[in-house]
């Protein structure tokens, strides 16, 4: 064994009979941090092994006690190590500070991390599973959202709103009918700058709309008015997002309804209950518009609809409506976002498999719920430990759409069950092979199934 | 024809930004799913290859050409892979660091992020010595900004300045695949790639023949002839371009050293070797692949251990360990305590590089909350190691790791047996070995020479290839030049040195298998998960095409096109012998 200059220094120590003082002497000679931690009795034995021991510069770290300090003051760490070690003299301390260690560049290693970490077998991603169940363009669309949303969520719970607004594809209102639908934005409430985008079926006159035209009373005997709350886990998208503009236009065409898409305030900037308040404000506004009243009974036939967080908002706005005596004819909840503290079977089984990870869900709840509240808050878990039963309350009928590959499904099913138990009218539509967002593109059978259901759901009170 | 390709490539590249204003105008008038507008609108110059936009996505404000859909999906998948592997905050820097040009154009948006994850090597001006040494200034004229689409693939097949003739020298029109059939056999095996016949082919063939003839003369100790031939090689090499020129120059240089007996001083400067090693690490995926695959095997072997000990036979700058440390922190139940024994050669300049690496790793371990212990071991040969020196503690799970170290033990008889014996006594849970996949240790000089010529031609091709892939900036980077120097030294050792000085005694996986088997080791299957991930990560981080991961009886190989260049294998002791011995 050749141990270069260190071994000769050690050997010298040994020959000079300085074994007892080996560590200190050696350090003086070589000027390095060394902490010989051999037990005393060993010292006499290692005639051969001696060469090896002093050359092993030994660093024992106790990270947990020092780590916060170290992050900011590597100096403190060094000093602490040195002071903790009785073997080390001031000389060594000086040697340490003069060594290149303090100027060395730890970012060197960060570069090596650009080649990612190996993953254990259990962590392996099954990307193809999600690819197999949806059309490719759907997969691209949703994966694109998944990727973008990952960029936007910061680990500290804040949200990159500027980039979000840039990445979100937006469409302005268009008062000229396209495919029989025209749209315009209205200010519902000035204080909170609440906007809603209203989509109306074009009733024949195929010309540019004027201000008078857009608020022209509806002519149908019965026309459903669907108040729509877009999805996006309370944080993403808006009423003018292209995906929701397109969806609302499709709803108008398919259901022959007016759609009012509510541009509610989003988390984390605006937590609970801002979104619900905006939904309630929009509902009051719609119910008081005379030009939206069906001719037959001079009533606005209001349906509440929403996907993801929008579905959640539907429930809470409907509840408020019931309490306040505003009539809602039905609720449509598409993949509504509910949750709870408990980890359900579907959350475990589908975690990370179909576009969504449970940790992402948790992030959004943290962003939306009041600080300090957990997922058993009523907003998240309406029939959970802190929830209130709807028994004996004249709650609107509900159409609940659950995607079989959505990890939130157990909570959605629990919601449906909760309604049923309270004696409410529930229609559950369980689409076994559907994933989140299937309704954004009309190229799958689930889309038409759901649209047919919605159409008949909002048409049942038509004569 | 080549020019067409290059133009198509670059106009496509510009499309992302040039059409963004169009896209915005489009957005506002679109409003209803009139997808046809998109189709009319997109850049006619790229229409030939493209096909129309996906109408459904267009209605939602995203343009993706139907023909690009699968490609975009793959890129998204790759990015997702990174998100999956990165920690919670692993990619949030993409939100701030990436310039997001046009989120409407999903293809370029996704591509911009992939580029961000795989930043081009720094374009720091190469220092004077290395650039003059390699005479590679010509490549600087290659200013193509390449994208990984099909048209680009053709472009990349032609390294260096072949597709950008900047002057009239016929040699500049050289095509990689053809002039040297003995070396680059891809031309034959992948006929689908376009081939341009050029007149420098003859020179290329002559160059290789002359090199081989020179080696032959050396073997026959006809030094006068060898001297004449080596000078001729020098001349012929000047008329070549790209990888061929560099490889030929290094081999000629090595031959000249052998002829004139000017041997390089191998051990003189291990710190400079470390520097070259770092550049090699940066410029191409070989070492990253080696680290990744070895780490994967180690991670699995450490599955449930609470105290682990890694013995690294060649610590160098310790680049392998941050990733493993980080992976261990992600383990359910928290990371184990981690001991690292880093072994390195003695330093002539009295610097204490091992210890400095140890400090830095300790610092990193500290910040990510891993209990870490480091020992640096200076020894000039692994065969000097003894089990006792390594202080294996009862109850700790040990991994022994060797990246490009074991073949050095073949220079002295008995050394490798001694090292393997030591490893056996350590009783590691796993012994990971990465070696060059070539036989540069045959008894006959000409055979070694020929084999090495093939091997290093592929390696240099791959270095050029990744540059042409557009991920690196066009002028040769310091990383690239230094990597060539790194490989050049190996060439020099294989060709010029003999006896115990010849340490680059690479042997093939088959040979290593036999040796490990007879030493009593059992192969550990690296698994298809490692294979899949390594392939994906390569596609992402090495700029994709050209590199190929292959599985060979449980071992993983990384190669360039059809040629395997390095192999990772993992070994363990059979349960009986590990209990029986000692």
TrEMBL record, chain A:
Residues 226-439 form the Alpha/beta hydrolase fold-3 domain. PROSITE patterns: LIPASE_GDXG_HIS, LIPASE_GDXG_SER. It holds the Pfam family Abhydrolase_3. InterPro entries: AB_hydrolase_3, AB_hydrolase_fold, Carboxylest/Gibb_receptor, Lipase_GDXG_HIS_AS, Lipase_GDXG_put_SER_AS. The active site is at residue 308. SUPFAM superfamilies: alpha/beta-Hydrolases. GO terms for cellular component: cytoplasm; nucleus. It is found in: Nucleus. PANTHER family: ARYLACETAMIDE DEACETYLASE, GIBBERELLIN RECEPTOR GID1C. This is Alpha/beta hydrolase fold-3 domain-containing protein. It comes from Arachis hypogaea.
TrEMBL record, chain B:
A motif (VHIID) lies at residues 308-312. A motif (LxCxE motif) lies at residues 212-216. PROSITE patterns: GRAS. Residues 277-342 are annotated as: VHIID. One of its GO terms (cellular component) is nucleus. The keyword Transcription applies. Residues 1-52, 166-188 are annotated as: Disordered. Residues 356-388 are annotated as: Leucine repeat II (LRII). GO terms for biological process: arbuscular mycorrhizal association; cellular response to phosphate starvation; gibberellic acid mediated signaling pathway; positive regulation of transcription by RNA polymerase II; response to symbiotic fungus. PANTHER family: OSJNBA0084A10.13 PROTEIN-RELATED (PTHR31636). Transcriptional regulator that acts as a repressor of the gibberellin (GA) signaling pathway. Probably acts by participating in large multiprotein complexes that repress transcription of GA-inducible genes. May be a homodimer. Belongs to the GRAS family. DELLA subfamily. This is DELLA protein.
């Amino acid at each position: 064994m050749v141990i270069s200059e260190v071994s000769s220094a050690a050997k010298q120590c040994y020959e000079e009979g300085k074994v007892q003082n080996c560590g200190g002497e050696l350090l003086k000679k070589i000027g390095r941090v060394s902490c010989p931690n051999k037990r005393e009795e060993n010292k006499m034995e290692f005639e051969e092994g001696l060469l090896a021991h002093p050359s092993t510069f030994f660093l024992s770290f106790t990270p947990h006690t020092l780590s916060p300090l170290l992050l900011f003051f590597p100096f403190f760490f060094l000093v602490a190590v040195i002071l903790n070690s009785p073997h080390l003299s001031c000389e060594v301390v000086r040697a340490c500070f003069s060594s290149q260690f303090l100027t060395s560049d730890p970012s060197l290693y960060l570069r090596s991390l650009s080649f990612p970490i190996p993953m254990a077998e259990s962590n392996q991603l099954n990307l193809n599973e999600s690819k197999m169940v949806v059309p490719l363009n759907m997969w691209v669309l949703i994966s694109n959202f998944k990727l973008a949303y990952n960029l936007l969520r910061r680990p500290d719970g804040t949200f990159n709103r500027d980039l979000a607004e840039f990445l979100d594809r937006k469409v302005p209102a268009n008062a000229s009918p396209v495919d029989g639908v025209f749209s315009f934005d209205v200010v519902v409430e000035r204080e909170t700058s609440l906007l809603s985008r209203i989509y109306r079926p074009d009733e024949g006159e195929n010309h540019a709309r004027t201000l008078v035209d857009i608020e022209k009373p509806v002519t149908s005997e019965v026309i459903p008015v669907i108040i729509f709350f877009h999805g996006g886990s309370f944080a993403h998208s808006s009423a003018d997002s292209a995906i929701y503009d397109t969806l609302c236009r499709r709803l108008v065409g398919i259901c022959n309804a007016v759609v009012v898409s509510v541009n509610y305030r989003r988390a984390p900037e605006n937590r609970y209950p801002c979104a619900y308040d905006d939904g309630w404000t929009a509902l009051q506004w719609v119910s008081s518009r005379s030009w939206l009243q069906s001719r037959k009974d001079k009533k606005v036939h209001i349906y509440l609809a929403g996907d993801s967080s929008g579905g959640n908002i539907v429930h809470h706005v409907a509840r408020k409506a019931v309490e306040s005596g505003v009539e809602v004819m039905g609720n449509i909840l598409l993949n509504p976002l509910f949750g709870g503290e408990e980890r359900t079977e579907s959350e475990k089984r589908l975690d990370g498999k179909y576009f969504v990870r449970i940790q992402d869900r948790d992030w959004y709840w943290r962003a939306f719920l009041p600080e300090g509240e957990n997922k058993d808050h009523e907003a998240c878990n309406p029939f959970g430990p802190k929830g209130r039963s709807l028994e004996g309350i004249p709650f609107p009928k509900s159409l609940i759409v659950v995607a079989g590959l959505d990890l939130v499904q157990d909570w959605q099913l629990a919601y449906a069950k909760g309604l049923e138990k309270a004696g409410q009218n529930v229609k559950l539509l369980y689409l076994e092979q559907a994933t989140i967002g299937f309704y954004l593109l009309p190229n799958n059978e689930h889309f038409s199934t759901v649209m047919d259901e919605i159409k008949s759901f909002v048409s049942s009170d038509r004569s | 024809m080549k020019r067409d390709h290059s133009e198509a490539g670059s106009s496509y590249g510009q499309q992302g930004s040039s059409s963004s204003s169009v896209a915005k105008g489009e957005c506002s008038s679109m409003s209803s799913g009139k997808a046809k507008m998109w189709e009319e609108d997109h850049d006619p110059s790229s229409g030939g290859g493209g096909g129309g936009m996906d109408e459904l996505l267009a209605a939602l404000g995203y343009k993706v050409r139907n023909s690009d859909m699968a490609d975009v999906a793959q890129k998204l998948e790759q990015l997702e892979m990174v998100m999956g592997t990165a920690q919670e905050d692993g990619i949030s820097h993409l939100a701030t660091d990436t310039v997001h040009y046009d989120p409407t154009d999903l293809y370029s948006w996704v591509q911009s992020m992939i580029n961000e994850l795989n930043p081009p090597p720094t374009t720091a001006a190469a220092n004077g010595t290395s650039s003059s040494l390699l005479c590679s200034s010509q490549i600087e004229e290659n200013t193509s900004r390449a994208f990984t689409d099909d048209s680009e693939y053709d472009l990349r097949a032609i390294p260096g300045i072949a597709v950008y003739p900047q002057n009239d020298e016929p040699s500049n029109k050289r095509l990689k695949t053809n002039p040297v059939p003995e070396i680059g056999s891809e031309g034959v095996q992948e006929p689908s790639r376009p081939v341009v016949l050029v007149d420098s082919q003859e020179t290329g063939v002559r160059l290789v023949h002359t090199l081989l003839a020179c080696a032959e003369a050396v073997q026959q100790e006809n030094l006068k002839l060898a001297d004449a031939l080596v000078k001729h090689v020098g001349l012929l090499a000047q008329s070549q371009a790209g990888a061929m020129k560099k490889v030929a120059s290094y081999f000629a240089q090595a031959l000249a050293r052998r002829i004139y007996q000017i041997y390089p001083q191998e051990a003189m400067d291990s710190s400079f070797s470390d520097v070259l090693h770092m550049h090699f690490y940066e410029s191409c995926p070989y070492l990253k692949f080696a680290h990744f695959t070895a780490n994967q095997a180690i991670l699995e072997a450490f599955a449930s251990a609470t105290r682990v000990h890694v013995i690294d036979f060649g610590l160098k700058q310790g680049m392998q360990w941050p990733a493993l440390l980080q992976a261990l922190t992600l383990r359910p139940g928290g990371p184990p305590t981690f001991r690292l024994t880093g072994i390195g050669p003695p330093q002539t300049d009295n610097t204490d590089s091992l210890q400095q690496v140890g400090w830095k790793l300790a610092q990193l371990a500290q910040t990510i909350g891993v209990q870490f212990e480091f020992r640096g071991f200076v020894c000039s040969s692994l065969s000097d190691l003894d089990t006792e020196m390594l202080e294996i503690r009862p109850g700790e799970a040990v991994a022994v790791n060797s990246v490009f170290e074991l073949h050095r033990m073949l220079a002295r008889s008995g050394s490798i047996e001694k090292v393997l014996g030591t490893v056996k006594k350590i009783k590691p849970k796993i012994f990971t070995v990465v070696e060059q996949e070539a036989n540069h240790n045959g008894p006959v000089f000409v055979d070694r020479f020929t084999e090495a010529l093939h091997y290093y031609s592929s390696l240099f091709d791959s270095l050029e290839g990744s540059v042409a892939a557009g991920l690196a900036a066009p002028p040769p980077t310091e990383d690239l030049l230094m990597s060539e120097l790194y490989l050049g030294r190996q060439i020099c050792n294989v060709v010029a040195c003999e006896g115990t000085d010849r340490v680059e005694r690479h042997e093939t996986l088959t040979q290593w298998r036999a040796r490990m088997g007879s030493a009593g080791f059992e192969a550990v299957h690296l698994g298809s998960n490692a294979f899949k991930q390594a392939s994906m990560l390569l596609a992402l981080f090495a700029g994709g095409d050209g590199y190929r991961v292959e599985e060979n009886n449980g071992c993983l190989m990384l190669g360039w096109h059809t040629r395997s260049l390095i192999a990772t294998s993992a070994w363990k002791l059979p349960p009986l012998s590990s209990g029986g011995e000692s």
